[in-house]
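Next up, sample data:
>
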Amino acid sequence: MKLAFTTLGCPDWNLETMISRAVQHGYQGIDFRGYLGEMEIYRLPEFSTNLEVTRDRFREASLEIPCFSSSVRLFTESTEQREEYLAELKQYADLCEYFGTPFIRVFGGLIGDREKEEAITIAARNTAEYLKVFEGLPVTLLLETHDDWTSCRVVQELLSRVNSPQMEVLWDVHHPYRTIGEEPEQTWNVLGDRIRYTHWKDSYVKTEHKRGYQLCLLGEGDIPLYRMYRLLKDQAYEGYFTLEWEKVWCPEIEEPEIAFKQYAHFMKQLEQQVSSGPTMKF
């Protein structure tokens, strides 16, 4: 089992702290979504002028950067915004080459009053343009099951329109189940052959919260994490299990010192339970 965490969960940690905590708790990777207050990490010395030092630190710790989590949205009708996203993807493409990172996370984006069919057409057209950045490179864009692109059927339709092996799926196991009631088996049955990476979180319903739910430590909510993990293992999933601890957006949740250690322990327990349990049939 390969574990990672996103830097969204540790906004105040420097590189040395991230690496030392990752090694201490048995993680294999760190997924970058911002660093010390800067979301576009390629603007920072650690990912520009001091790239070699950063790469050496990761190599010495035997850690990977399995994914760079970008802010890019596939759906946009703004030419200016599309150009900004293209520039961002070019920066991340360079970082992927340097660090040997195979994936860049992208969002579908909010579609507002647009019909889904129109939004899919626009997103597919934009994606075809974005993918030109990666021609000849071993880099794949991962569309996260998030925002208005949570439904497996909608994601499948966009993938079909794009029709490229360099566009796959990041299954955020939380969002489809929590926000639209999509069962994990349904998600897998539709998208399983395209899922290359996963994000993990837990929550419970809290109607007074602006989201309608409260994020919590894994195992303290009611997301069917055991079913999800068992499903992935039974289907021979070999990708990362990445904790997306949204500390930046939800400052009330536990500090990373607590959450990152707890996640590693929880997932290892889950692995043991699944290994001793029955195999699922599909």
Notes: The chain has one domain: 2-276. The mean pLDDT is 96. Residues 40 and 219 are 32 Å apart (CA to CA). The first strand starts at residue 2 and ends at 6.
